């Protein structure tokens, strides 16, 4: 299936009801109701605060794929793309019939609804569910583990979102999409199970390179048995970490959403039509590793005292009246050679002040700055 065909499917079946980054159970439940006559939907359990955790089973094929999103409540891009995928799979089109005939998908669209409501990484008990794979101390962790045990997947898709700080390699290339075949041991041995996941990632990368060349990365594979992906990989189930990252000027993550959708279909189509043994895994190692090379904004060449320095600014994401606000925070004032800004401002040797006319300080919030008597808005929408 060509990328052009996948892009046309996305345009036709995108779940237009889901927009921007604040996606909660309230947003997805109406969409789930529209699927009830087409797919098996079950309530798998409840969150700490009693919100429902839903599961959907789609397809009839022998290859079983488990997918879960919003394990971290503030990472919603992959959730939006899941509903775009579901709209496509459950439509009248026969474009993806081969996936449904060869695969059975079990999808948990929102594992951490409390974290989604609060727009936090953690659950209501302040626990990172992706560090709870061994202790299983939280109800959400137990739900995922129970589904894993009962569904017995052949593949797992662990769906996440990535901060804007990451680059694809040490270059001025944001990591728009990143992947990982998690380690199975402390030595990060390239096991047969990892090779299978690597081969699928390599296939997705080949597709994405047509659209975002040099903007795909791989995450650090340091082993942590408390992480869900590492745990499932150690049980010899090929597991793929998806990270939805930053497309230029796309803080709503709508461009990234389409790319994640394309990665979903590319990988599912590959699995549906091939027996994946991991023999074609080597191309995985051509993908550059993620580095932390970005700030949201860099002000270059500002006068600070008697020196010329750069100012690195990172957005702090908060919820105000049901919407995300991106508040600029001064992270670093230094020589930022080798660090890039998603937006760069040339200070041309002038001093930069806050709205009150004082010099900028690290950790301060500044919606505006004053540069050469001009008021500049830093906040993004």
From TrEMBL:
Keywords assigned: Hydrolase, Metalloprotease, Protease, Zinc
Active site: 243 (proton donor/acceptor)
GO molecular function: metallocarboxypeptidase activity; zinc ion binding
Keyword Amino-acid biosynthesis recorded: no
Keyword Metal-binding: no
GO biological process, one term: proteolysis
GO CC term, one of those recorded: extracellular space
Cofactor(s), by name: Zn(2+)
Sequence ranges assigned to domain Peptidase M14 in this UniProt record: 11-271
InterPro entries to which the protein is assigned, alphabetical: Peptidase_M14
SMART domains in the record: Zn_pept
Organism: Allotamlana fucoidanivorans
Protein name: DUF2817 domain-containing protein
Family under the similarity heading: Belongs to the peptidase M14 family.
SUPFAM superfamilies: Zn-dependent exopeptidases
Pfam families per record: Peptidase_M14
């Amino acid at each position: 299936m060509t990328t052009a065909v996948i892009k046309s499917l996305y345009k036709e079946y995108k779940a237009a009801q889901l927009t921007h980054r604040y996606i909660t159970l309230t947003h997805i439940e109406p969409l789930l109701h529209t699927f009830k006559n087409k797919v098996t939907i079950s309530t798998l359990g409840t969150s700490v605060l009693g919100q429902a955790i839903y599961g959907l089973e789609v397809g009839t094929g022998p290859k079983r794929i488990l997918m879960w999103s919003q394990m971290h409540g503030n990472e919603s891009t992959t959730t939006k793309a899941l509903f775009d995928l579901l709209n496509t799979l459950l439509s009248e089109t026969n474009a993806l019939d081969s996936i449904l005939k060869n695969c059975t998908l079990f999808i948990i669209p929102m594992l951490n609804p409390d974290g989604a409501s609060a727009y936090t990484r953690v659950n209501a008990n302040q626990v990172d569910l992706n560090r709870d794979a061994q202790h299983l101390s939280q109800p959400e962790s137990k739900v995922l583990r129970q589904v894993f045990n009962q569904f017995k997947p052949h593949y797992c898709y662990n769906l996440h979102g990535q901060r804007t700080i990451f680059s694809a390699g040490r270059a001025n290339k944001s990591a728009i999409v990143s992947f990982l075949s998690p380690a199975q041991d402390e030595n990060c041995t390239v096991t047969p199970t990892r090779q299978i996941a690597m081969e699928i990632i390599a296939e997705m990368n080949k597709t994405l390179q047509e659209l975002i060349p040099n903007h795909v990365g791989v995450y650090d594979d340091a082993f942590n048995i408390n992480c869900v992906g590492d745990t499932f990989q150690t049980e010899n189930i090929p597991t793929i970490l998806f990270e939805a990252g930053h497309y230029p000027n796309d803080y709503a993550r709508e461009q990234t959403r389409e790319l994640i959708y394309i990665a979903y279909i590319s990988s599912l189509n590959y699995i549906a039509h091939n027996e994946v043994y991991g023999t074609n895994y080597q191309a995985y190692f051509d993908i550059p590793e993620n580095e932390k090379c970005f700030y949201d904004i860099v002000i270059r060449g500002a006068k600070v005292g008697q020196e010329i320095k750069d100012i690195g600014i990172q957005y702090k994401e908060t919820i105000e009246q049901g919407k995300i606000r991106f508040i600029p925070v001064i992270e670093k004032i230094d020589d930022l050679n080798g660090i890039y800004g998603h937006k760069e401002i040339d200070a041309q040797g002038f001093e930069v002040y806050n709205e009150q006319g004082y010099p900028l300080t690290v950790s301060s919030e500044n919606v505006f700055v004053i540069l050469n008597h001009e008021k500049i808005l830093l906040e993004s929408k």
